[in-house]
C-alpha cells in the first residue's frame, strides 16, 4: 500500500498545526491560571508580576517553580485562620483566673480557695458582687464605704446620716449656753494736761 506524499505532508502539517495550537492554548491557560492563583495568594504587585513572568518564559518548568515558591495559603484562608485565632484568644481571655496563683476561678467567687486571695467585695446596699477597685456599685449607684465623694451637696450628705438615735441610748438633751451680759464700759475723767500753755 502506497501513500501519496502530498497527503502525508498534509497530515503532517495538520498535526503540527494542531500541536502548536494545543501548546499555545496550554501556555496561555497556564499564564492565566498563574495570574488568578497568585492574585488570591499575594497582595504584592511585584510578586504577581514575577510569578507570571516565570510561567510565561519557562512554561512547564516555570509552573513547577511557581508551585514550589508560591504561598501555602490563600488570602481568604489566612483571613479565616486569623479570625479563628482571635476567637480562640478571646475565649482564653474570657476565662477568669486568680491574680495570685493564676488558677481558674468562677465569676461569683469572693476569694480564691487555693491561695485565699480576695477577688471581689459585696455592696453594703444591694449585696451584689463588685470588683475590688470599684468605688461605686454599678447596680444601685451606692458609693463603697470609705470612698471619696466629690461634687456632693449638703442635702445629699445629710441623707446619708442616721436620723434616729439608737434605742439603747437616751436622747440627748439640749445644753443651755450661758451668755454673759455686756458690762458697762467704765469711764474715766479725762485729766487736763498741766503743761498746757496759759494765756498771757
Automatic annotation (TrEMBL):
The terms under GO molecular function for this entry are: helicase activity
Q: Which domain of life is it from?
A: Bacteria
UniProt region (Disordered), positions on chain: 158-200
Q: Does the keyword Chaperone apply?
A: no
User: Which residue intervals define the domain DZANK-type in the entry?
Assistant: 98-140
Segments crossing the lipid bilayer: 12-35, 47-69
Q: Which UniProt keywords apply?
A: ATP-binding, Helicase, Hydrolase, Membrane, Nucleotide-binding, Transmembrane, Transmembrane helix
Could you tell me what this protein is called?
Replication restart DNA helicase PriA
Q: Which organism is it from?
A: Longilinea arvoryzae
Amino acid at each position: 500500500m502506497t501513500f501519496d506524499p502530498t497527503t502525508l505532508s498534509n497530515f503532517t502539517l495538520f498535526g503540527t498545526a494542531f500541536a502548536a495550537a494545543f501548546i499555545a492554548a496550554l501556555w496561555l491557560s497556564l499564564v492565566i491560571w498563574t495570574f488568578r492563583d497568585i492574585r488570591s495568594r499575594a497582595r504584592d504587585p511585584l510578586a504577581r508580576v514575577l510569578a507570571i513572568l516565570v510561567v510565561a518564559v519557562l512554561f512547564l518548568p516555570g509552573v513547577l517553580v511557581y508551585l514550589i515558591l508560591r504561598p501555602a495559603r490563600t488570602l481568604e484562608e489566612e483571613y479565616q485562620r486569623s479570625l479563628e485565632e482571635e476567637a480562640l484568644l478571646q475565649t482564653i481571655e474570657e476565662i477568669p483566673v486568680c491574680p495570685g496563683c493564676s488558677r481558674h476561678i468562677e465569676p461569683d467567687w469572693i476569694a480564691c480557695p487555693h491561695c485565699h486571695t480576695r477577688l471581689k467585695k459585696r455592696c453594703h446596699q444591694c449585696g451584689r458582687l463588685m470588683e475590688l477597685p470599684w468605688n461605686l456599685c454599678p447596680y444601685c449607684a451606692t458609693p463603697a464605704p470609705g470612698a471619696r465623694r466629690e461634687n456632693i451637696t449638703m442635702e445629699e450628705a445629710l441623707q446619708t446620716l442616721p436620723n434616729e438615735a439608737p434605742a439603747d441610748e437616751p436622747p440627748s438633751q439640749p445644753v443651755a449656753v450661758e451668755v454673759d451680759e455686756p458690762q458697762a464700759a467704765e469711764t474715766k475723767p479725762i485729766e487736763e494736761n498741766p503743761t498746757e500753755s496759759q494765756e498771757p
